[in-house]
């Protein structure tokens, strides 16, 4: 009888331990960054026209100089920069980066995510989430099709 009671305790402990491990792993995966949105979902996000216009002006004034008009990292200033600016047309890169990570890079610059200090931060966009969203959508639109 003692043996059976011990077996029941062990079995119960195993179930509790297994459940705890499952909960920990589930919580860990919930804390990870969201995966990139599929193209259809990303394009479905609504961005007000004024935010799109402001994002276009920001892209031309701040991003295009290094990343180029088509996002291939071939802007006028790119030749003088080491490391070279990111090529946004690469599918491998597009699938490796989350939307949250892109937003962080846009706001905090390269240094904010452990990349080049030459990519400047845009703290003036903190209060403009729609402009950030429009810039992110623009970067996503540059993926090679």
Per the principal axes of the C-alpha atoms, what is the gross shape?
globular
| Number of β-strand runs | 0
Structural class: mainly alpha
Number of domains: 2
Distance between the termini: 69 Å
Instruction: Bin the strand percentage.
Output: under 5%
Measured as a percent range, the helix fraction is 55-70%
CATH architectural category of the largest domain: Orthogonal Bundle
Mean pLDDT: 79
Order of helices and strands: HHHHHH
Question: Main β-sheet: number of strands, strand sense, barrel status?
Answer: none
The number of helical runs is: 6
CATH topology of the largest domain: Cytochrome Bc1 Complex, Chain D, domain 2
- At the first level of CATH, what is the class of the largest domain? Mainly Alpha
SSE topology sketch:
Blueprint: H1 2-31, H2 39-44, H3 49-67, H4 91-96, H5 99-108, H6 129-141
Helix pairs in contact: 3-6, 5-6
